[in-house]
Design goal:
- The chain is of the alpha+beta class.
- The chain has one domain.
- Helices cover about 15% and strands about 20% of the residues.
- It contains three helices and seven strands.
- The strands form two sheets. It has a five-stranded antiparallel beta sheet, with no helix packed on it.
């Protein structure tokens, strides 16, 4: 988007939750750091061009030196607010750090968000969401609730 608009809803297409407070910065228009990480998984963090990652920690499209320089100058503009600097945005945890160490799910995000998301590696679009350790919800690729576990 080229014009400045105030965002009221999460930009993650699988979420679209109402934000706690409206934001003007499009890079901050996410309800959790997990939604931010999912959204930028296949996009350049600065210009939002589509990209295919070669490494899990890659945040810029190859050849986007201008984007890298812009990020170095203003990281607070592009990172999710309050993100842990030790874990850059969009870095997936290893399978041993997820609830299921079989590798069937990948926890997304560096810090511990209010919600945790797990996505299947095959890219079928189904994902888990958990707000605490006792409650889990499974969503279809269209974002519909498929299962709710207590």
């Amino acid at each position: 988007m080229s014009k400045h608009t105030t965002r009221h809803y999460c930009r993650n297409t699988h979420c679209r939750a109402k934000l706690a407070a409206p934001v003007d910065n499009e890079h901050h228009a996410f309800c959790t750091s997990g939604c931010h990480a999912i959204f930028y998984r296949h996009r350049c963090l600065v210009c939002e061009d589509a990209m295919r990652r070669k490494r899990d920690d890659q945040r810029f499209k190859n050849g986007h030196k201008t984007c890298q320089n812009e990020y170095r100058r203003f990281p607070h503009v592009f990172d999710y607010p309050g993100v842990n600097p030790g874990h850059p945005t969009g870095v997936a945890m290893s399978a041993s750090q997820t609830l299921d160490s079989s590798g069937s799910k990948v926890a997304v995000g560096g810090d511990l968000p209010r919600k945790m998301f797990w996505r299947d590696k095959a890219g079928r679009g189904w994902y888990w969401e958990s707000e605490d350790l006792g409650e889990h919800r499974l969503f279809s690729r269209s974002g519909d609730l498929a299962a709710h576990l207590h």
